[in-house]
Every structure is written in C-alpha cells, then in structure tokens.
Design goal:
Elements: E1 4-9, H1 13-24, E2 29-33, E3 46-47, H2 49-58, E4 66-68, E5 70-75, E6 78-83, E7 94-96, H3 99-112, E8 116-119, E9 121-128, E10 135-142, E11 145-156, H4 163-167, E12 178-187, E13 196-199, E14 202-203, E15 212-213, E16 216-223, E17 226-235, H5 245-255, E18 267-277, E19 286-287, E20 290-292, H6 308-326, H7 331-363, H8 366-376, H9 380-390, H10 401-412
Parallel strand pairs: 1-2, 1-11, 2-8, 5-13, 11-20
Antiparallel strand pairs: 3-7, 4-7, 5-6, 9-10, 10-11, 12-17, 12-18, 13-16, 14-15, 16-17, 19-20
Helix pairs in contact: 1-3, 1-6, 2-6, 6-7, 7-10
Bound molecules: flavin-adenine dinucleotide (FAD).
Length: 416
C-alpha cells in the first residue's frame, strides 16, 4: 500500500517543480511541506534570465512582475553596466519576486496540475525496505502527530538542511564552496532602477580608506519603491567565516551613496541570513530510491549565489527520470532510468560548477577580488564576458564567440 507514486519532501521551487512535472505526466505525487503557504524564505528574490526561462517552461504567468535588464557592478571607484545578452535559450530580462509570493505561486501551479499538497507535515526520517534498503517512505510529524507515508520513490527537496538525506548519511561535503548571505527589504529611491545593482567590494570601515571586507552586496527592486538588499560571503571549503554580517551591513549602509537612502529607518524587517550550499555539495543525487533536488543537492551556483534556476531545473530533470522509471516493468530497468538523473545534472552543470569552485577559491580573498574589480571593471568587453559566465547566461550551443568560449571552458573542466 502506498500513499503516492512519489513523495516530494518540501514545497520550495525545487519541490514545486518536481511535483508539477510529475503531475503533468499523470503521476500521483504528494508534496509534504512543514510550513503553511504563503511562507517566507530568506532569499535575494532575484531571477536571472535562466530562471525566467524555467518559469516560462512551466507556464508561469509573470505579467506585472518587476523586470530587470542587466547587472550594474560597482567597485574600486568604477562601475560597469552590462545588459542581459540576446540569446536563443533564454529571454533578455530577469525578474524579482518576493519568495513569499513566488513559492506560493509555484506550489499552487503544481497543485493545479494535479499534485497533492499536505502542509504542516515535517519529515523526520526515512522508511527503508527491509531487504533492499530502498527508501519507500518517510516518517513525519503531521500537525504534531507521528505519521508514516509510503511511496515508490521519494524526492528530498527540503532545502539546505536536507533533513531526510542527512538522516541517511548523505551529508554536506567539506570540499565544496558554501555561501552565507543576509538580506532585508529597504524603501529606497534606488528601487526605480531596472538593473540588478551589485556592490563588488565592501569595506571594513570608510570606503576607500579601510581594508576590503570579504563579501559582496546586492540591491534590486522587488516591487515599486522597495529593494531586496543583502550581502553575502563565500568559503571555498565550506567552513563558515564567522563574520559579523550585521556590522558589515551597517558599514555598507554608511558607505552607500546618500541618494540611495540606505538607513535603518527605511528597512522593512530585520536583516536575516541563511546558508547557500554550492556546486553539488551533497551527493549522490540519486541512490536507493531517493533523489535530491535544489539546495538539498547543494546546487547553488558558486559564481553568483543563484539557486532558484537550478532548483527548478533539477526538479524538472528528476521528474523526467522518475516518469521513465515509473513506466518500467522491472526494478533493474527502473534503476537504469533513475541513474540518468545524476548523469544529466553532472553533464549539464558539473563542468560549470568546477569552474565556479576555482572562481570561489580566488574571490573569497578580498585582496584578489580588489585586483579583479580594479582592472576588470574598466574593460567593457571583458566585463560582458565575465557577467555572462557568472550568471550562466549563455547559449550552450551556437551563439557568439563569448558563448562558444564559455561552452568550451565548461566542456574541458572536470565534472564536479
Ligand atoms: C540570503 C540569500 C539570498 C539568496 N538570493 C538568491 C537570489 O537572489 N536568486 C536565487 O536564484 N537564489 C538565491 N538564493 C538561493 C535560493 O534561496 C535557494 O537556492 C532556493 O531557495 C532553493 O530552493 P529549494 O526549493 O531547493 O529549497 P527551499 O527554497 O529552501 O525550500 C525548501 C522547502 O522545504 C521545506 N522543508 C524543509 N525541511 C522540511 C522537512 N523536514 N519536512 C517538510 N518540509 C521541509 C521548507 O519549509 C521549504 O518550503 C539565496 C539564498 C540566500 C540564503
């Protein structure tokens, strides 16, 4: 007796995507979510063209959402403005949407497609087949009461903590980058910008006359008059840097141009932070009936801290592999279908994330970041190339010389 063909643990972007793509194939999919929608998620709320292309593929109506048309980077007394490129594989604009709204829209979309959602259900562990060891269900606290749910396959979409995968020994790798980022909302005249504003250099004290702080900042509008503002730092070896993010944020506010009006009285809510697990930091993505998607599989990009595009993408690929497996008539054949999921993710992103790991080990050192910013920002062609690489905004086949160069670099890099 099963409760569903597939149980998806967690209803964030990764879980909603997996559930949506399974539901449109006609499978019985049950999402177990510990919170109740609409719920908040600490995030920058930024959607690059790659993320937008995933939303378009899912049929999400984004009319009226705040759009952006590129990235503006500041540092070492310079600034550069790089519009999103014209590409075949994605649109030339990004979006921003508060996660409280975005995640609600995505999960409702999955439910409208036929997925079932149970909220207030916190998954605590796995039920394993006594002979094969395969995950055939989950233990949960449903509205505070212990409950068991059974399915043919289980997807862990439970975010960075990945409680289910962790309970099975699939732990965060120590040799992958880990980001920590904090954000708040701010009423600011800068919210009239239609670019993603990136502060590539932060300072420990006064701008220009103190040491560089190990981090970067961002600000972009999420609705008229309101920015998502935040800062983050990166550790190439997964060790938290123990930084005082509140102090860093206060210093940034003090150093920001006066006309931006970054001030405590303009903040909507406190500065809040969370971890960003990167570059496939939790593996294997498939084993023993359990697939990992999104942050549960550590899929944030080490280049720019973006995770939503990869959460949506991995949900889609996982659902595709699961759909194939559910149609097979033998266990061996089903396993073969499921083994394609980690392979496809490695083929698509393994080389890119390896480059990202190299990038992370360089720019985690503020003195190197300073040199890159100082010599890089004044060179527009170089910056167009770098921004394309950092935001994964390139055509993987065809395209111009920049796309072809990035594709070649990704191809020769070892698969993460
Ligand atoms: C400060 C910050 C800024 C960021 N900015 C950006 C950005 O601008 N753009 C971008 O693309 N990415 C950004 N990211 C990364 C992005 O937030 C994540 O990559 C993304 O949320 C991953 O989606 P997910 O569905 O895998 O996980 P989540 O969004 O974390 O969703 C996991 C879901 O699982 C549920 N859950 C967890 N445990 C259980 C359990 N045991 N039982 C049942 N349910 C459970 C949670 O309640 C949640 O709903 C940022 C991250 C941080 C911390």
């Amino acid at each position: 007796m099963t409760d569903a063909d597939v149980i998806v643990v967690g209803g964030g972007p990764a879980g909603a995507s997996a559930a949506y793509y399974l539901a449109i194939q006609g499978h019985d999919v049950l999402v177990l979510e510990k919170a109740t929608f609409p719920r908040d998620k600490i995030c920058g709320d930024g959607l690059t063209p790659r993320a937008v292309s995933e939303l378009v593929r899912m049929g999400i109506d984004t009319a009226g959402w705040v759009r952006n048309y590129g990235i503006r980077g500041y540092g070492a007394g310079n600034f550069v403005e790089v519009p999103w490129p014209e590409l075949a594989s994605m649109p030339n604009y990004g979006l921003a949407k508060r996660r409280k709204e975005l995640d609600h829209i995505l999960i409702r979309h999955a439910v409208a497609a036929g997925a079932r959602l149970e909220e207030g259900v916190a998954v605590t562990g796995a039920i394993r087949h006594e002979r094969t060891g395969h995950v055939v269900g989950v233990l949960a606290k449903a509205h505070g009461e212990p409950r068991e749910y059974r399915a043919r396959y289980v997807v862990d979409a439970g975010g960075a903590a990945a409680r289910l995968a962790t309970s099975l020994g699939r732990v965060q790798s120590k040799n992958r980058p880990m980001g920590v980022a904090h954000r708040t909302y701010m009423r600011s005249p800068l919210a009239s910008t239609d670019f993603m504003e990136s502060q590539l250099e932060l300072w420990e004290g006064e701008a220009g006359s103190s040491n560089n702080a190990p981090g970067y900042g961002w600000a972009w509008p999420v609705e008229p008059g309101v920015l998502n503002v935040g800062l983050g730092s990166l550790s190439s070896k997964g060790a938290p840097k123990g930084l005082d993010y509140r102090a860093m944020f206060e210093t940034w506010m003090a150093n920001a141009p006066a006309e931006w009006e970054f001030a405590p009285e303009n903040m909507e809510g406190p500065l809040r932070g969370a971890a960003l697990p990167m570059a496939f930091s939790r593996k294997p993505l498939y084993a023993d009936g359990l697939l990992l998607v999104g942050d549960a599989g550590g899929m944030v990009s080490p280049f720019n801290g973006e995770g939503i595009a990869y959460a949506l993408r991995s949900g889609r690929e996982a659902a595709d592999a699961l759909g194939q497996a559910l149609a097979r008539t033998s266990a061996v054949s089903a396993e073969r279908a499921l083994a394609r999921y980690p392979k496809i993710m490695a083929d698509e992103l393994g080389g890119y994330y390896s480059l990202g790991r190299m990038f992370a080990s360089l720019i985690e050192r503020p003195e190197i970041m300073h040199v890159c910013v100082r010599h890089g920002l004044p060179r527009p062609t170089l910056m167009r190339f770098v921004m394309r690489l950092l935001s994964d905004a390139y055509d993987k086949s065809g395209g111009d010389w920049m796309d072809r160069l990035i594709a070649s670099l990704v191809k020769v890099a070892p698969k993460s």
